[in-house]
Structures are given as C-alpha cells and as structure tokens.
Design a protein that fits this description.
A hairpin with an 8-residue loop joins strand 14 and strand 15. This protein is an alpha/beta fold and 408 residues long. Strands 1, 11, 12, 13, 14, 15, 16, 17 and 18 form a nine-stranded mixed sheet that branches. Strands 2-3-4-5-6-8-9-10 form an eight-stranded parallel β-barrel, surrounded by seven helices. The protein has two domains: 146 residues, Lyase, Ornithine Decarboxylase, Chain A, domain 1 (Beta Barrel), CATH 2.40.37.10; 251 residues, Alpha-Beta Barrel (TIM Barrel), CATH 3.20.20. It starts with a helix and ends in a 5-residue tail after the last helix. Helix 2 packs across helix 3 and helix 8 runs parallel beside helix 11.
Length: 408
C-alpha cells in the first residue's frame, strides 16, 4: 500500500509515535517467486523458512498455509511452529545447541534434526534404542570449503575421520536412517552457491549407498531491495533467478535422469521477509550541534538494524502538507531515542524536515523484531494495513511484559 502523511498520522493517534508495518502480501509474493525460480530448474525444491530471521507468528502461519516447512533452531522456535499448526514432519531442527527433549519430540514426530557435532550422536543413538519400533530419520550438517574465505563454525568437517566414523556408527544402527545432508554458509554472494551445491552432490555420492530423501543447501540469500541500498554492499546483489541458476541447476544436472531424485531444500529468511516490513518513527526534535544537523526520532537503530551494519536503509519522510514549517537540511543525521552515542538510524539526509514529521524506513524485516534488546523502552507494535483497517500483529510491549520475571 502507498503511504502518505494522513494515513501515518491516523495510525499514530491510536498506536503511538513509532510502529512497524508488516506487508504479508509482499511476503507471500516473495515466497512464491523464490520457490518458482528454483523449481524451474529443480521441481523437487521446497522452502523451509528460517524462523530466527523473523518469527512473527502471522508469517510462520503463512509459510504453513503456502506449503512450506519450518526451520527452527531452539525449543522456543519449535513451540512457535507447533502453535501455528506446523505438523512435526515439516519441521527441520538446526543449531549448535539443541534442547534434547525438543530434539526427541521432533525426531519421534517424524521431523528432521540436523546433527551439528559428534556430541549429539549419543543422544540420537539413545532415542533409537528407546524406540526400537520406530525408524528414526536424522540429517547431518556438513562443513566444507565453498571459497568464501570463512571457516564456518557449524557442522561436521567432512574431511576429518570423525565424519566418516559418525556416518559408520549411525548406519550401523538398525533403526536410524540418514534422511538428509545439510549445509549452511553465511555468505550471500552468488558465486558461493554453486560450490555449496556441488559439494553437497559430491557428498551424496561419497556417503550414501542409497539416495537420501533430501539435500538442504541452507540459507544465505539476498532479498529484494532498492538500488540505493544495493549500492552500499559493494557487490552484485543476485536475484532469485540467479541463485537458482547457480544452485538448483547444478543439482538438477547432477541427478539428471534419475527416477528417485532427492528433494532439495533451501532455508531463506531475509530473502523472504527483508522487504516485507517497514518501521515508522516520528521526529521529536531537530538541533544544530557545532554545525551538524541532528534530528532525534521516536525510534532506535536497534529497531531497524540491531546487527549495526552501518548501511542506510531506503527512507521516505512524511510531512504534513498543511504545515509550512519544514526547513531544508543538508547532511542531517537521524538519531535514536537511546542514550548510546552511536545510535543513528540514518546518516546524510538531504531535504525538507520538521518536528512532527514521520520517517518511514524500508527493508527492516530481517532480525529487527527478534534481535531488538529491551533497552530503555519496551518495543513498539507491529501492525498491518488491510482493507478492513489496522490489524494488530503484535501489540505495544509494556513494563509488565519486560519485568514480570524480576523480583521487586
């Protein structure tokens, strides 16, 4: 929906001077476009949405409704999946530290737990012994060089003897099935996706006499963004199609002609939700400090960019069209409400601005609401503009929300 000052002002009257705006239509569009891009080359592709990127329940339920899977990394995220109705067999449980009771629930319910380290093997073996009547399906997280210059800390080093030993022990168990091989690398660069696809296909050939149910290439994909944001990365920002050409086409070629081709999973987060959320913050003051113009907003860098990557998101300033008080500024910085000196949401704004204006920040869907610390103020509401009005996706947090676990 196109926003204007009057729409934002009306929302502010009921929900305060700062709030998130969710766009579920854009989220759904991203899901279908990304899946279609990969399925063009490999029809057996599925999406397991990365809950940790933005675990807003409305989005997680949409993934289930659209036929996707849930990728969780904790018992907390597992509980979200259960509450929004995700069947256990559609849950993939990752992460370096897993609650054993949660892992047992996923395993026995038919979901996939991807083992990250040899220390997790005894627990899986114990679960298998306790339930000899069940065939337990697990996955293995694999770590190898994809040319990104990073030594990832996750998964098994596939070049080490311990990897082979682990596979031998699991295959020796009568009721354990290695259903899938998994990897995840943090780099979102296009050129790292073909090496990860090639590496996983090679491991299938080397490790599994029988074709696994699936291979999982993890996440690490850029989403859609405006050119002003793309330019700040200093690299090419791939499209969904370009990622698919590198990865899905490689997997398709490797398994060409086979009747029992494995399913292919990807685990996007930012690629789906990055541009599906905006943050609106009101201008509370404008000052000049030794020749530097600074506007303080009812919002913080921690609301939009808690990873502190120092990139300016796309913004739109909403000014009251009946107010002639706006002045023109050059190189103005938007500062946050916190008492942290480095709390700036945007640097180098040029244009008109007045106290009471609203600044709309785009591309804030990734990690914002899940990493925002409870620092100085409770977090702001998450809303969605619909044909029927304003839906409250997440209400404004309160003092009691934050402090009911403390003893006073």
């Amino acid at each position: 929906m196109e926003l204007n000052y009057n729409i934002i002002k009306d929302i502010s009257r009921s929900h305060g001077d700062a709030f998130y705006l969710l766009d579920t239509e854009q989220f759904g569009l991203n899901y279908h476009e990304l899946l279609a891009a990969f399925r063009k080359y490999y029809p057996e592709t599925h999406i397991a949405y990365s809950y940790k990127t933005n675990y807003t329940p409305r989005l997680c339920r949409m993934i289930e409704d659209m036929g996707g899977y849930a990728e969780v990394v904790s018992d907390m995220e597992l509980e979200i999946a259960k509450r929004v109705g995700v069947p256990m067999e559609k849950i993939h449980f990752n992460g370096p530290v897993k609650n054993i009771d949660a892992a047992r629930e996923v395993i026995l319910g038919g979901g996939i737990v991807n083992l990250d380290d040899y220390s997790e093997v005894p627990a899986v073996m114990q679960i298998a012994r306790e339930h000899p009547e069940k065939t337990i399906s697990i996955g293995i997280r694999c770590n190898f060089n994809v040319g990104d210059g990073v030594v990832s800390r996750f998964g098994f080093d596939v070049e080490k003897p311990a990897f082979t030993q682990m596979l031998h022990e699991l295959k020796a168990a009568e009721n354990i099935q290695i259903a899938g091989l998994h990897c995840h690398f943090a780099s979102r660069r296009q050129e790292t996706w073909k090496p990860r696809a090639e590496g996983m296909c090679r491991l299938v050939d080397e490790c599994s006499p029988e074709m696994p149910d699936h291979i999982d290439l993890g996440g690490g994909l850029f989403g859609k963004m405006k050119n002003s944001l793309k330019a700040q990365f200093g690299m090419h920002i791939p499209t969904y199609k370009e990622y698919a050409q590198e990865a899905a086409a490689t997997v398709s070629k490797h398994f060409e002609g086979l009747d029992n081709r494995p399913k292919l999973f990807i685990e996007p987060g930012s690629a789906l939700v990055g541009d599906a959320m905006r943050f609106v913050a009101r201008v509370k003051s404008i000052k000049d400090i030794r020749g530097k113009a600074i506007a303080t907003l009812m919002g913080s860098i921690y609301n939009i960019n808690p990873t502190l990557n120092k990139k300016n998101p796309p913004i739109t300033v909403m000014h009251d069209p009946t107010d002639g008080e706006a002045a023109d500024y050059h190189d103005l910085d938007f500062a946050g409400f916190t008492c942290i000196e480095s709390d700036y949401l945007y640097r180098g704004y040029n244009g008109p601005l007045a106290i009471g204006d609203f600044v709309v920040f785009e591309n804030v869907g990734s990690y914002s609401v899940v990493l925002k610390p409870p620092f100085i103020l409770p977090n702001f509401p998450v809303l969605e503009i619909t044909d029927h009005g304003i839906d409250i996706i997440k209400r404004q947090e309160t003092f009691d929300d934050l402090f009911h676990t403390f003893n006073f």
